[in-house]
Design a protein that fits this description.
seven-stranded parallel beta sheet, Rossmann fold, Arc Repressor Mutant, subunit A, 723 residues, globular, alpha/beta
């Protein structure tokens, strides 16, 4: 009797029944239907492609964007039965060879690869000779340039589909708008692709948003009052390290995670978190995909994401076991600045685009009307010299990707490889080989000539020693030593490729290149990013059910309220109203009698009177909130100082801090605002920190500020409030 999908479900994966939508999609795949499945996080998409792959006659390919994600899935699957393997740059030649042999012996049913592997000639040769039954694409939103995780290498999938002609392809993602869906369908080039949406609604995630508050204090409060394990998402690597250090000092067992860490460190951190050795991860969005831990209870966004897709993906890491979990977002006006900064730096203007085009040709000394098929390379320092300013790696990557999409260049993946040129003539090489006794050396040289032909005699050509070693089945070290020997004998020349960016030009250089299409595309993407963030801000300030509003964005129409978010439960914003009280009182210290409207204009930053110390400090608060606070004083149009009840010592402390700031500004030759903003001073007055940890918990008060003014602040507070 043939084993069906239910047998594999129960006996291999140890589940009694399928989740909603799983069986339907599995049946489509087994019937060789091409699909794009949009499934909510935690819906069990891995099982959907694992069962058809195991049931098929041959092997299947799973294209996955992260090494860690591949490793996790292979580990989890092989812990049941050895059925899978992954290929990436960390494998040795022998390991790679063993995997290929297992595939040929039908011992491997799922072969996980990165999208960049699709560009590898050796891999292309292998799958063209031994085509897979199915191609599965994980995190398919990476295909779309409209998505937040666009990966240019995903565009190569279309060519691979044509090359191997699989029985079916199946792509999966947890978040995709209609624009992204259309882009995925067009990019794959599959006409009969069936789009399946099983719903975005997650009824076990409680979404809560807090606005205009001390983020560090709120963070600690949330961690103390909610279940762990959890993930804290921040916007930058620096902030990830800062928050991680701060929480460790407070006794929270955590590690920071970002793309700047070496792969082995990232792997160890992720493993420790998965095994329960860590309570928390403080991470950038690099920790988005690849997290497969079912019992995450709390997700905190310390900074505001720039779009719904990223937010949905990240909060979806919580509660995959079906248990109620919580997502918190901490928002203030600094998030607007940060997101605007990222947008401006990710989408270069027309001048930068044109100048980069010129640079690509100038870098290779390519004249007008000419192109070069030789490999060109450059480093960040070359960019800085040419542009008279630095461009971030992300901007350079973006520009190169766009120029590649428009067939102006082709990017080459030769970083940390060798360039080789044979100095001897062909006749001299023939004589040399005749006299060579060592057969291994003969094989190496013969294959160099066979693989690279005349090019290797004319110009430097890049060579991947690992791939070459695997190709001719000779140890890497033997080839390397032999090439060094040949260089010493002046038979060949070697150059190490240390540049970060390698490419060839595909089009002839033009004096006035038509970059309008590219420029328009960039402008469109930039506008899209701006609109996405503005939409997300509307979500932040919305009074509707959070989950309802979230799924509506993805086109899922529902009026169902979750009943567990802050809006459904009518949880207040937890605004620091004492802060509002304080800045109103401070304003009235200067001018005892002001109208409510005057005060509103001053503390919102709209007044022309810039001499008020409270100028603009309340601009992050809504007018409705401020008006409500103003009403607390009296109901008349005029507010009298005499009617106010406030702590005189707070005003005294604030004035003393202002004096300290003035002295430090003179000492460090900086503006007082640069030393410490008045908003932060107000927060210090309200919090009255007694030690370094409490002081560093003040939002915006970092180690740099502490080194300048921290000791003096603590001294005056501890002196003033001895008891």
């Amino acid at each position: 009797m043939l084993k069906d999908k239910h047998w594999y479900l129960k006996n291999i994966f140890k589940y009694e029944k399928f989740r909603d939508g799983q069986e339907y999609i599995i049946d489509l795949i087994l019937n060789n239907k091409n699909i794009l499945a949009i499934l909510p996080t935690g819906a069990g998409k891995s099982l959907i492609y694992q069962i058809p792959a195991i049931m098929s006659e041959k092997y299947s390919i799973v294209i996955s964007p992260l090494i860690s994600l591949m490793q996790d899935q292979v580990y989890n699957l092989n812990s049941i039965k050895e059925l899978s393997a992954y290929i990436n740059s960390t494998l040795s030649n022998q390991e790679l060879s063993d995997i290929y042999n297992k595939v040929l012996d039908n011992k491997i049913k799922l072969l996980y690869i990165s999208p960049e592997r699709l560009e590898n000639n050796k891999f292309q040769n292998f799958i063209s000779n031994f085509p897979p039954d199915y191609i599965f694409i994980d995190e398919a939103h990476c295909i779309s340039q409209w998505g937040n995780s666009f990966r240019p290498s995903y565009k190569k999938i279309k060519d691979i589909i044509s090359l191997v002609n699989p029985k079916a392809i199946a792509a999966f993602t947890a978040s995709a708008t209609q624009d992204i869906i259309n882009d995925i369908v067009n990019s794959l080039g599959v006409n009969d692709l069936k789009v399946i949406k099983t719903g975005f609604y997650r009824d076990n995630i409680s979404i809560n948003i807090f606005k205009n508050l001390n983020k560090k204090q709120k963070l600690v409060e949330l961690l103390n009052s909610n279940q762990l394990p959890g993930i804290i998402y921040v916007a930058t690597r620096k902030l990830a390290e800062e928050i991680s250090f701060y929480l460790n000092q407070l006794g929270f067992k955590n590690e920071c995670y970002h793309a700047g860490l070496i792969p082995n460190v990232r792997k160890t951190i992720q493993e420790n978190f998965s095994k329960g050795k860590l309570d928390l991860i403080v991470a950038t969005n690099a920790f988005g995909m690849g997290v497969d831990k079912s019992d995450i209870r709390t997700i905190i966004h310390y900074n505001t994401p720039n779009n719904f897709e990223a937010y949905y993906q990240e909060i979806g890491r919580a509660g995959r076991d079906g248990k109620t979990s919580k997502a918190f977002l901490l928002y203030n006006k600094d998030d607007d600045f940060l997101n605007n900064f990222f947008i401006e730096n990710n989408y270069p203007d027309d001048e930068i685009i044109y100048k980069f085009y010129v640079f690509l040709y100038d870098n290779g000394n390519i004249a007008l009307g000419s192109k070069s098929s030789e490999m060109l390379m450059f480093s960040n320092s070359a960019i800085e010299r040419y542009f008279h300013k630095s461009l971030s790696d992300s901007i350079i990557d973006i520009l190169l990707n766009w120029f590649e999409q428009y067939n102006i260049i082709e990017r080459l993946n030769y970083k940390n490889q060798l360039m080789i040129k044979i100095i001897f003539s062909k006749d001299e090489i023939k004589k040399y080989l005749i006299n060579e006794i060592d057969e291994t050396k003969k094989i190496i040289m013969s294959n160099l000539i066979n693989v690279y032909k005349n090019k290797v005699f004319e110009n430097f050509v890049p060579i991947s020693l690992s791939e070459f070693a695997h190709w001719i089945d000779i140890k890497y070290s033997l080839i390397e030593n032999y090439l060094l020997e040949l260089e010493k004998k002046s038979i060949i020349q070697l150059q190490k490729i240390n540049s970060d960016f390698c490419y060839i030009t595909l089009k002839e250089r033009e004096k006035n290149p038509d970059l309008k299409l590219l420029s328009n595309e960039v402008a469109k993407l930039k506008t899209n990013s701006i609109n996405n963030y503005e939409q997300f801000k509307e979500f932040i300030y919305s009074s509707k059910c959070r989950m309802n509003a979230l799924v509506n964005y993805f086109g899922e129409k529902t009026s169902k309220n979750c009943g567990i978010c802050d809006n459904c439960l009518n949880i207040s914003d937890s605004l620091n109203l004492s802060f509002v009280d304080f800045i109103i009182k401070r304003t009235l210290e200067i001018e005892p009698e002001l109208s409510k409207q005057d005060i509103l204009e001053i503390i919102k930053g709209r007044s022309e009177n810039i001499f008020f110390p409270t100028f603009g400090l309340a601009q992050g608060y809504s007018e409705d909130i401020l008006i409500e606070v103003l009403k607390r004083y009296n109901q008349s149009n005029k507010i009298k100082k005499a009617k106010l009840i406030y702590k005189k010592e707070d005003i005294e402390l604030y004035n003393e801090l202002l004096k300290i700031r003035e002295k430090k500004a003179i000492k460090f030759n900086q503006t007082p605002e640069k030393i410490c903003s008045e908003k932060i001073l107000v927060d210090i007055v309200l919090a009255k920190p007694k030690n370094i940890f409490e002081l560093l918990s003040i939002d915006g008060f970092d180690k740099n500020k502490y080194n300048k003014i921290g000791d003096d602040v603590l001294e005056i507070i501890n002196t003033k409030y001895k008891n």
